[in-house]
Design brief:
The structure holds two protein chains of two kinds. In chain A, about 0% of the residues lie in helices and about 60% in strands. Chain A has strands at about 5, 10-15, 20-25, 30-35, 45-50, 55, 65-70, 75-80, 85-95, 95, 100, 110, 115. In chain A, strand 5 and strand 6 form a beta hairpin. Chain B is mostly beta strands. Chain B has a single domain (about 5-110), classed as Immunoglobulins (Immunoglobulin-like). Classes of the chains: A mainly beta, B mainly beta.
Chain lengths: ~120, ~110
């Protein structure tokens, strides 16, 4: 749809499981983001990667571990999650120059992964 | 309150009517963006307005920005049932090493056929 794909679209996992979310962008962007969207709360930025380098960790618990092997792929590794981690996890990408969003830049979002932790 | 806050939280109108949503923010910004989200899906960028701009148009969308009042509005004219979605404003804050958008909680718009 938007050039940003996410897999899986739905995931149910137990608290002791280890799983990974995958995001891929086909837009030639150099910045990628993970967001968490919970009911009745604003979209929460989790991580920012610029040219594969993590430039933002928004006080995210260590049970979430991001990985960015190249500027087109982003992973979110999950382990020992809690039920309150159930949410829609959204990946986004954008062009970023000089460490900040350009004046004309927008973020392109993937469809999200609906995660349920039992 | 947070950096970006939309008002109202929910809006229900009839098809053909105009819908106006407002966004207020607290600190100086580089730009303000509006996004749309259909239920349980990713966000779609609608329009970006820079801090030195006052108004922008895109199709049936009109966005205004008043930096003195730290507020923005999104107007959707001649609404359609397909416009039913949540609408979010997002601000890119100026100064320092800021390179991220801060989103509000959104306005849920329902357009009744």
């Amino acid at each position: 749809e938007t050039g940003v794909t996410q897999t899986p679209r739905h995931l149910v996992m137990g608290m002791t499981n280890k799983k990974s979310l995958k995001c891929e962008q086909h837009l030639g962007h150099n910045a990628m983001y993970w967001y968490k969207q919970s009911a009745k709360k604003p979209l929460e930025l989790m991580f920012v990667y610029n040219f594969k380098e993590q430039t933002e960790n928004n006080s995210v618990p260590s049970r979430f571990s991001p990985e960015c092997p190249n500027s087109s792929h982003l992973f979110l590794h999950l382990h020992t999650l809690q039920p309150e981690d159930s949410a829609l996890y959204l990946c986004a990408s954008s062009r970023m120059e000089g460490g900040r969003l350009g004046l004309m830049d927008e973020q392109f979002f993937g469809p999200g992964t609906r995660l349920t932790v039992l | 309150s947070q950096q970006g806050e939309e008002d109202p939280q929910a809006l229900s109108i009839q098809e053909g009517e105009n819908a106006t949503m407002n966004c207020s923010y607290k600190t100086s910004i580089n730009n303000l963006q509006w996004y749309r989200q259909n239920s349980g899906r990713g966000l779609v960028h609608l329009i970006l307005i820079r801090s030195n701009e006052r108004e922008k148009h895109s199709g049936r969308l009109r966005v205004t920005l008043d930096t003195s009042k730290k507020s923005s509005s999104l107007l959707i004219t001649a609404s359609r049932a397909a416009d039913t979605a949540s609408y979010f404003c997002a601000t890119e804050v100026s100064g320092g090493s800021n390179y991220k958008l801060t989103f509000g909680k959104g306005t849920l718009l329902t357009v009744n056929p």
